[in-house]
Design brief:
Chain lengths: ~110, ~120
């Protein structure tokens, strides 16, 4: 199975500051035939199901604020919140859909400092 | 609008089975697969398995493959997940989620059902 390791496990950021979450895969999730990275990012707030923010590693879902951005390729990826807002407090997960056995990272909890 | 609505909370004894349903609406049912993901209390997301709603093919996590069965009722647009030989560690919220890939291709999951809490306790 492809293992996704997120770092850090949690971080506290001041409102208006940048938050950066990393996701490292145990193998590349870049499909060479279409040059797409099969990686998504989700946001989960307490008591709610996850919601997709980013797919293909860097494509923002419709309606997601542009302060959220995804980058990276191959086996190393980053989710950046450029200016943290109070409503961004949540747990964030990366997920690979490269394999027929999808897997998630362990999650990163983002709080306000 | 696409919706996935799950059945209500369940309480089961160890050793029993549970069957959770996921009723879909707002899209062509057979075009998109449906996954099941669970979340133990205070823990992360764990993929359980999926079904290709077009042809009924399934795929399961190695962790659950001996105990889980995912089926679908095409006419009713419902996907079911049955987990047998329940133990206390199976206490979790179980989510269904639509795969955005068509005709069996894997993509990201959107939307998700509201979740079903399954509690296993003697």
């Amino acid at each position: 199975d492809i293992v996704l390791t997120q770092s850090p496990d949690s971080l506290a950021v001041s409102l208006g500051e940048r938050a950066t979450i990393n996701c490292k895969s145990s193998q590349s999730v870049l499909y060479s035939s279409n040059n797409k990275n099969y990686l998504a990012w989700y946001q989960q707030k307490p008591g709610q199901p996850p919601k997709v923010l980013i797919y293909w590693a860097s494509t923002r879902e419709s309606g997601v604020p542009d302060r959220f951005s995804g980058s990276g390729s191959g086996a190393d990826f980053t989710l950046t919140i450029s200016s943290l807002q109070a409503e961004d407090v949540a747990v964030y997960y990366c997920q690979q859909y490269y394999s027929s056995l999808p897997t998630f990272g362990q999650g990163t909890k983002v709080e306000v400092k | 609008q696409v919706h996935l609505v799950q059945s209500g909370a369940e309480v089961k004894r160890p050793g029993a089975s549970v069957k959770v349903s996921c009723k879909t609406s707002g899209y062509t049912f057979s075009f998109y697969g449906v996954h099941w993901v669970r979340q133990s209390p205070g823990q992360g997301l764990e993929w359980v398995g999926w079904i290709n709603t077009g042809n009924g093919n399934t795929g399961y996590s190695r962790k659950f493959q001996d105990r889980v069965t995912i089926t679908r009722d095409t006419s009713a647009r419902i996907v079911y997940m049955e987990l047998s030989s329940l133990r206390s560690e199976d206490t979790a919220i179980y989510y269904c989620a639509r795969d955005l890939g068509k005709f069996g291709e894997f993509n990201w999951f959107d939307p998700w059902g509201q979740g079903t809490l399954v509690t296993v306790s003697s």
